[in-house]
Each structure stands twice: as C-alpha cells, then as structure tokens.
Amino acid sequence: MRKGARQRCLISTISFNLDGTVASTTEFWGVNRSEIGMRIMVVEDEAVIALTAVAVLRNAGHEVLPPAYSVDEALALGAERPDLALVDINLAGHDEGIALARDLLQRYSIRSLFVSGQVEAGRANRDAAIGLLSKPYDAGSLLASLEAAEKLLSGGSAPSSPVANGLELFGLPSGQQSEQHVC
Q: Could you tell me the residue ranges of all domains in the chain?
C-alpha cells in the first residue's frame, strides 16, 4: 500500500443527451486524485466491464494496471506487483479465476478480491481470495470494497457490518499476514 493520508472527495459523473439535456448523474465518494491510492490489477474477460472498472478506480486516485482479459495476461502482469487483484471467477466460460487467484498469491504474494456473479463458487473457495464483490455492482460499491480490502490488507480486521452492497469479506486465512508492496 502507498503511504500517506488520503482525503475523500465527492466524484460526480454527468451524462448528456444529444440535445444537451442531462441524461443521468452518478455521485460516489472517492479519494482525491492527487493522493496515491492502491495499485490494482483488474482481471475481467468482458472488455466493457474491465474498462469501466479501470476508469472508476483511476478517477478515484488508484494506480491501475492495464486490464488483463485472460489468465496468461494476468500472470504476466503479476510481475508488476499490484497491491490487489480484482479477479472475475468465470473467465472464458470456466472458473479459471479461482486457480488464478491462488497462483497470484503463491507466485507473487498478491491477494485477490473476487468480482463475480459466481457467488457460490467464490464462497466455496474463500481460501483463494480475501472476499467477493457480487456482480452486478456500482461504482460506489467497487470503491467501498477497495477501501475495506485496503484496511484488511493493512492489518486491520474485516468490518462486522456490510460496507458495500454485494461485498462479502472472507478475511485473511488464520496465521497469515499480508505482505505490503511499497514502491
């Protein structure tokens, strides 16, 4: 994790219709872009979901590696030593994300947070990740999930009450501590 206090700020997005009228607005709490957030790897085989997550995370001040769309791409990016990998369980139609999370932990000491609609598979493999953010999710839930994950990885305990819609924190396996990657 990066050192230094982070200031929270309200991030707003506004979509416009062709005639200039407001189509939709979204607001969520994030961190000031000038502060350095976590270094994140997004592993997702659906490009729209991956690029949306990358944009939300970057806008919130996190350093985000280019998205990995496959297991091979994710393992290659593991050498970049992100603080956390957001891993879809169902890559290319199978549950490759579970083995990937285990490989990232074993090879690079990178913890993963499952981000998937495969809730039962995530729960059954809680030893492979620190938690599960269920799809579909919104920007606020994604950012709140990262905040909770960062606290857990920094040695804090998992919150007892829900911190984000669709988030289940599994915690670190007993007897294990997180390695902190400081650049």
A: 36-169
Q: Where are the beta strands (DSSP E) in the chain?
A: 8-16, 22-31, 39-43, 63-64, 84-87, 111-116, 131-134, 167-169
Helices (H) and strands (E) in the chain, counts: 5, 8
Query: Does residue 4 carry a pLDDT above 50?
Result: no
Residue 78 near residue 110, CB atoms below 8 Å:
yes
59-103 pLDDT tens trace: 999 999 999 999 999 999 999 999 999 999 999 888 899 999 999
pTM of the model: 0.76
Place of tokens 């957030």: 37
Match 């990740």 to its residue by tokens: 129
Q: Specify whether the CB–CB gap between 104 and 179 falls below 8 A.
A: no
Residue 81 burial (C-beta neighbours within 10 Å; 0-12, 13-18, 19+): middle
pLDDT value at 175 more than 90: no
CATH topology assigned to domain 36-169: Rossmann fold (3.40.50)
CA 114 – CA 140 distance, rounded (Å): 17
